[in-house]
Amino acid sequence: MSETWYYVDTGHATPAFNMAMDELLLNWHSEGKIPPVLRFYGWEPAGLSVGYFQKVQGKIDLEGVKRHGFELVRRQTGGRAVLHDQELTYSVIVSEEHPDMPKSVKEAYLVISKGLLHGFRNLGVQADFAIPEGKLETTGSAVCFEEPSWYELIVEGKKAAGSAQTRKKGIILQHGSIPIEVDDGKLFDLFIYPNERVKERARKAFGDKAVAINQIVPEPITFDKTKEAFKQGFETGLNISLEPFQLNEEQLQAVHQLAEQRYRNDKWNYAR
């Protein structure tokens, strides 16, 4: 018997709205108001999300972010900066006490990432879990897609999806980025490098480390087709059935309010 989770499809929304929505879904689940949730979304305008602990000053080129018309937002989850542009983003919100969720962050990653694995396979992409060796985590790069972490999805050795996890109020929030297209020219305009040569070298190296879906499928695919493949992937990988859930007016209002108060607030976004 598969368990029923809520399926929340919020389409394309602002970076602040997207982060507020994840936070409130976590709160509502912790209060027992909603069951576990799978959410899919896109970003309009594109956003640069920085990790909860990440420094902005001296690392992120704020002029570059503005020049491209992107918005910076700080996530609840750790890790490095991610440019969310032409991608499908997913969130999984589930209790730490859920019988299928391991206590360790790393093992919970594995369980949740099975949804991603099946999603890629639904698109005919042979993806695998990354098992990092040695000290990949200590490169000091500000860019998330530079190195795969445990159980992230790789295709032919290149990172194809990046995820981050936090645990608050007894709830696991794992969200992540599944790039459909990548414009690495834009991406590297968003970070501060000692000089152009170092920046160019980083940009070239990036192509060997990360891959987007439309670089590996025979025919380019759309956001909606990607979403459908991963929706089925999560149902299979987590053995769940998904029931569409629409927020009511009051809930939507709460998301917009939190977006304004926290995720559009410079104190929150630039504090570190």
Automatic annotation (TrEMBL):
Q: Which domain of life is it from?
A: Bacteria
Please list the coiled coil stretches. none
Q: Which GO terms describe its molecular function?
A: catalytic activity, acting on a protein; ligase activity; transferase activity
Pfam family example for this protein? LplA-B_cat
GO terms, biological process = protein lipoylation
The UniProt keyword set, sorted, is:
Ligase
Q: Where is the BPL/LPL catalytic domain?
A: 32-242
- Name of this chain's protein: Lipoate-protein ligase A
This protein's species is Thalassobacillus cyri
